[in-house]
Amino acid sequence: MQDDIAEQKKMIRKQCRQTRQNLSEPFRTFASQQICNKIENLQAFQKASVVLTYMPIKAEVDLRPLLDGFPHITWVLPRILPEPEHSLVFHIYDPNLLVYHPFGMAEPSRHLPLIAPGEIHLALVPGLAYDRQGWRLGYGGGYYDRFLQDFAGISLGVVYEALFLDNLPRGHYDIPVNGVVTELSFYATSAQSSASGPS
Chain centroid to CA 137: how far? Predict the structure, then answer.
């Protein structure tokens, strides 16, 4: 059963990569700004003082305008630990202390202060695709699922509307997010917290 799900995910992942690549760069820039605007208006964001975000890679939604626009927030970035940990740790964001992981994304320097997951109020979670129940299709590493499994804050998926799907296959270890934000709307999911909705 899990092998079937893995194969389904592999096929959908390939289709979604192509869909995202077909979005023009001007559109991705516009859509990313619209998503930032919608996040700004969410109660979960307005109440949060410690927010986990990410540096975009491979045409992902770009949330960097939020970091520039809300300097009073303590912004946090993930860093991938090498094997055998195979997990994420979190550091305070410093634009002058970013290093590039072999996967290609910018990460915080390991010398920056660590932030415990329990200190994070809101997590903005990248994904290749999301569905209406809040299930996520990532790149297959499982890093965010391991983080979300015990995360007590609010998690919001960010994705282009073209990659917001009706249903995604999910495995035993997949964890849904509390809501999804696209350039068109905020969508509550089955895992929604009341704090996630618009103000």
Answer: 11
